[in-house]
Write a structure and sequence with these properties.
Radius of gyration of chain A: 23 Å
Largest sheet of chain A: 6 strands, mixed
Structural class of chain A: alpha/beta
Order of helices and strands of chain A: HEEHHEEHHHHHEHEEHHEEHHHHHEHHE
Strand order of the largest sheet of chain B: 1-2-6-3-5-4-12
CATH class of the largest domain in chain B: Alpha Beta
Shape of chain A: globular
Shape of chain B: globular
Helix content of chain A: 40-55%
Radius of gyration of chain B: 23 Å
Number of helices of chain A: 18
CATH superfamily of the largest domain in chain B: Metalloenzyme, LuxS/M16 peptidase-like
Structural class of chain B: alpha+beta
Distance between the termini of chain B: 32 Å
Number of strands of chain A: 11
CATH architecture of the largest domain in chain A: 2-Layer Sandwich
Oligomer: heterodimer
Strand content of chain B: 15-25%
Largest interface: A-B, 100 and 103 residues
Order of helices and strands of chain B: EEEHHEEHHHHHEHEEHHEEHHHHHEE
Number of helices of chain B: 15
CATH topology of the largest domain in chain B: Cytochrome Bc1 Complex, Chain A, domain 1
Number of domains of chain A: 2
Number of strands of chain B: 12
Largest sheet of chain B: 7 strands, mixed
Chain lengths: 518, 474
């Protein structure tokens, strides 16, 4: 049977996969300029991936507009506008009528609103392409902006912050808190879905004005993949020509503030275990050569949801500390039940992060120390030639799996265009074989470090944990069943006393219920 | 198990319209089978089923091993969650391929590999270059026949399972799942979630001996199926399966799952949640087991769509027009034994829980008396078919779907039979199913809400809302 998917944005896990949480970096990138026609007279950008034998058609209609375009005091405007459009009607049809027509086709229209990009994602069987096309373009070009749809969407976003994130998703809360701390004062700081006060202050007129600003030809990329006829492409180009030619000016991104030592934000709430996220901005993206060198080092340290990374092997494999421990060199959101990243969350600035999945409270600071120690060992010692060769070979094969499915492939292609680089997987296949071990280890030293870190810790008794951390005393692991391995015990003693350069001035405790208010 | 070398399904035309002569021309789909790819099933002499599905995915294969044992098989007290725990242990290696070597070989292939456990089955899956097929079969056959781990490794892995419990425990869905099962079932093993009761998870480090017994009982060829989708030659696959799995010995254990007696009165449970939340209303009606021959469960699948899809009048009323709830889902997840038709609503205002419950109950009652219009039923059937077809876009998704039906019936053809039943369902079938299963005396209602001053800490359970979603190795 076919279980009904959750509606967009109900349940934060499902919600965040479509309405993600954000990221960062440091320097201006010449290569980040869009590759194709940007001039006032230029035709609208298209990104096509025909696959004539496919019975499916995937759409990704994207606007280069995101949470960073939210006006002060109206945080959440972009996400709320995107959701109200995707879960709304057209000039002629109510949301209810649109839903009724989409239903027999099992076709979908979703919105994904990130920091810099907003993408409307559609999927249809080509038996219904024309009827679906009319609904999709009706929704995007003549959105209804019904008061009722607006209210419903706003309630969902408010609940996503007030209930889901603050109360019922400790791992998501840790990641969001990391952004909040790491990007203090930067346009990337706030949640993509805004703040409670921001959402409450938004009016229907605000949304209409935001739509007029963002839904413009210069902001748009029209992505289509699958078994579509070329005639549809002509229709798409002509139909979107009704949008105003202009676009929003690009929001200037300053370099994120420099972190000073280990800065810690404890988020206190009733919690069954402690969730930890660690990070810092880095100055590389997929556009840069060094990104591909870091990709190898990062995979060695913490490839997402595999037993290849040291973090996973040392923390879970050897010690059974938790369910998983991974690291990333760019903003990463897992695509549903797969192991692979969601496309179309590309950003001009990126960050490095470590995700420590919930650890029993007594072992939380041991886990933090172990993760930072592993990072330091990578920075100081680099990879061995064997690890380098094995990891590079892995990535050359593994990365070919990342673009399974039409929509993912299309999204990855559009991201490559955003970064002004060739198709991401092709770039990996080009860059990795050229790499030498020295390149990887030098890139690690250039971009990674284990001294200036933002750390978000979601836990129950935060004040006590804060005191323990500030005391500098060892924080030994408590095993469910004591280990007998002498090598492990010896390393445990080093980990439990591993010195963290804590910045005492920048350690604080906040209540989960107070976060993301404004 | 059926005849060796039986060709279950010859090449079926890709039935989903592949013609498109002009932009804008509609091409209604035809054909009779919902699963559009050729399926070849072979049963080896030792009972291992080998299923090959060539699929246009050049250079890649999805390699799945389905073990028809899940948390349903945890019949002894204190052993809940063991099938899932054992799934974790399957990654701890053998003499020939210790954990590190196993991982290194799959790393070299660039494989994506993992596993998950549900109420009814456990699945191990690898997505990798087709050129690595023989290597994968070497590794997988070895661990299914020769798994070996130390007591210390066993205890360490219990920590990871506790970690998995913890990662899910901050979500109310785990607790709802735990509470409704515990209340609705008195004898059947569906009483516990797939990850198990917390008390049993904490006791796992002391169950080494039982783990050996579990392996001996269920990890046997006649209880398993290999499923390979993608760039695969069926004949070569069978030859390799004989070579690598031919020496796997049959088992003899027959599990006896306690039957659930009929529920005779409504049960109600209230749960205090430590964090502020809108109340959740969770209603479970005892339903039928999965069947690809009987109409009951397929008819309830249609009810799920008629009431809880976004286009459904009830959904539109509660979510879109009145905006009383921000989440409304309902359905009967496929299970080998009778499970629940479960409905979950998150109600925006605590004082409106009773209204929402009454409205949902009234909609269920209406199904018993008011016939569903034929055109509405037609739209549901169309939705189900297209939804299924659109999900088959990668080798991995095709394998996931067939694994589900193999686990339920041991026959991948079950998917076609179920969708054929959908096609035949009449308004009377829907009415009869509603009358049979939506009795107030057969339901359990759980209401989870936050009360000021509620005790802090975890109350969690495991897995996702739908039991079939399962829990994974990492």
């Amino acid at each position: 049977m076919t279980p009904r998917p959750l509606p967009v944005a109900c349940g934060l896990a499902a919600f965040l996969s479509l309405m993600s949480i954000g990221a960062a970096d440091t320097k201006e990138k010449k290569t980040m300029k869009p590759t194709s026609n940007q001039g006032a007279e230029a035709p609208i950008r298209m990104s096509l991936l025909p696959s004539p034998s496919s019975p499916l058609v995937a759409f990704r209609i994207q606007f280069r507009c995101g949470a960073i375009n939210d006006p002060p005091g109206k945080e959440g405007l972009n996400a709320l506008t995107a959701m109200t459009i995707a879960q709304g009607g057209t000039r002629e049809l109510t949301y209810q009528e649109v839903t009724e027509r989409l239903y027999p086709m099992a076709a979908t229209i979703d919105a994904q609103a990130d920091k810099e990009l907003t993408t409307f994602i559609g999927n249809v069987h080509r038996d219904h392409l024309k009827a679906y096309y009319d609904l999709l373009t009706g929704i995007l070009l003549q959105p209804r902006f019904d008061e009722s749809d607006f209210k419903r969407s706003r309630d969902i976003l408010l609940a996503a912050i007030e209930t889901n994130l603050r109360g019922n998703d400790d791992e998501g809360l840790g990641k969001a808190a990391l952004q909040w701390l790491m990007y203090d004062g930067h346009p990337y700081q706030k949640l993509d879905i805004g703040t409670v006060q921001g959402l409450k202050s938004i009016t229907l007129d605000d949304m209409k004005a935001h739509y007029r600003r963002c839904a413009a030809q210069r902001n748009a990329v029209l992505g289509v993949a699958g078994g579509f006829p070329m005639g549809m492409v002509d229709s798409l180009r002509q139909d979107f020509a009704v949008l105003p030619r202009g676009g929003t000016p690009e929001v200037k991104l300053d370099k994120p503030r420099a972190l000073s030592g280990v800065e810690v934000m404890f988020v206190e709430k009733p919690a069954p275990a402690t969730a930890i996220s660690i990070g810092f901005p880095i100055g590389v993206t997929r556009a840069d050569k060094d990104f591909y060198a870091l990709m190898v080092a990062n995979s060695y340290l913490g490839e997402h949801r595999t037993f290849n990374g040291r973090l996973m092997n040392k923390m879970r494999g050897e010690r059974g500390l938790n369910y998983g421990d991974y690291s990333y060199i760019e903003n990463f959101i897992q695509d549903g039940g797969s192991t692979f990243p969601v496309p179309n969350i590309a950003r001009r600035q990126q960050y490095f992060s470590i995700w420590i999945r919930p650890v029993p409270h007594p072992n939380a600071l041991f886990a933090l120390r172990q993760a930072v120690r592993e990072l330091k060992m990578l920075v100081d010692g680099g990879l061995s030639v064997q690890d380098f060769e094995a990891t590079r070979k892995f990535l050359l094969n593994y990365s070919r799996l990342w673009t399974q499915g039409l929509s993912r492939r299309l999204g990855t292609k559009m991201d490559s265009e955003f970064y002004g680089t060739k198709f991401f997987i092709d770039r990996i296949q080009e860059e990795l074989p050229r790499l030498k071990l020295e390149d990887v280890n030098a890139a690690v030293k250039r971009h990674l470090q284990a001294v200036n870190l933002a750390v978000a810790i979601v836990t129950e008794n935060a004040s006590a944990m804060k005191e323990t951390l500030l005391s500098g005393k060892p924080t030994p692991i408590t095993y469910q069943t004591p280990t007998t391995s002498e090598a492990l015990l010896k390393e445990d003693r080093e980990i439990e006393a591993f010195p963290l350069p804590i910045n005492r001035e920048r350690v604080r405790v906040v209540k989960a219920q107070e976060l993301f208010e404004k | 198990m059926t005849d060796p070398l039986k060709l279950v399904a010859a090449l079926v035309l890709v039935i989903l319209g592949t013609r498109f002569s002009a932009w804008g021309e509609e091409t209604p789909r035809g054909g009779s089978k919902v699963f559009p790819y050729p399926v070849q099933v072979t049963v080896l002499e030792n009972g291992l089923k080998v299923v090959a599905v060539p699929f246009d995915n050049p250079g890649l294969v999805a390699y799945w091993t389905v073990v028809r044992a899940g948390s349903r098989n945890e019949i002894e007290p204190g052993k809940s969650g063991f099938a899932h725990f054992f799934e974790h242990m399957m990654f701890r290696g053998t003499d020939a391929y210790p954990r590190e070597r196993y991982n290194a070989i799959l790393k070299e292939l660039g494989a994506d590999h993992n596993a998950f456990t549900t109420d009814d089955y456990t699945a191990y899956h690898v997505l990798a270059p087709a050129s690595g097929l023989e290597t994968i079969m070497t590794l997988e056959s070895d661990r299914f026949m020769n798994l070996k781990y130390t007591v210390e490794d066993f205890k360490k892995e219990a920590g990871a399972v506790l970690g998995e419990y913890n990662k899910n425990a901050s979500s109310p869905f785990q607790t709802l799942n735990e509470k409704i099962r515990d209340a609705a079932f008195t004898a059947h093993t569906y009483k516990h979630t797939t990850i198990g009761f917390l008390r049993d998870v904490k006791e796992m480090p002391n169950q080494y001996e039982y783990s050996l017994q579990f392996f001996d009982r269920y990890y046997r060829p006649e209880n398993c199926a290999l499923l390979v989708v993608g760039d695969v030659d069926p004949k070569r696959l069978v030859d390799l399966a004989r070579k690598f799995y031919g020496g796997w010995k049959r088992g003899s254990y027959q599990v006896e799952i306690p039957a659930e007696p009929q529920q005779t009165e409504e049960k109600r449970v209230e749960v205090d949640w430590p964090n502020p939340t809108q109340p959740y209303l969770d209603m479970g009606y005892h339903g039928p087991a999965f069947s690809d021959t009987q109409v009951d469960l397929p008819a309830l699948d249609l009810v799920s769509q008629l009431l809880f899809s976004e286009a459904a009048p009830l959904y539109q009323k509660l979510v879109v027009v009145e905006q009383e709830v921000d989440l409304l889902i309902g359905g009967a997840a496929d299970h080998r034994d009778p499970y629940l038709f479960e409905i979950v609503a998150r109600v925006k205002k605590p004082e409106r829980v009773a209204y929402v419950e009454a409205t949902i109950t009234a909609a269920l009652e209406d199904l018993k008396t008011k016939p569903i219009p034929a055109d509405r039923l037609g739209k549901v059937k169309s939705h189900l078919k297209y939804s299924y077809a659109m999900g088959l876009d990668t080798a991995g998704s095709v394998a996931r779907s067939l694994a589900h039906y193999i686990a339920l019936t041991s026959d991948p053809e079950a998917v076609n039979r179920v969708y054929a039943i959908y096609d035949r369902i009449t308004p009377e079938d829907v009415r009869n199913a509603a009358r049979r299963y939506f009795a107030r005396t057969g339901r359990t209602v759980v209401i989870l809400s936050h009360k000021e001053g509620a005790p802090a800490g975890a109350q969690g359970g495991a897995g996702a809302m739908a039991a079939a979603a399962g829990v994974t190795a990492r």
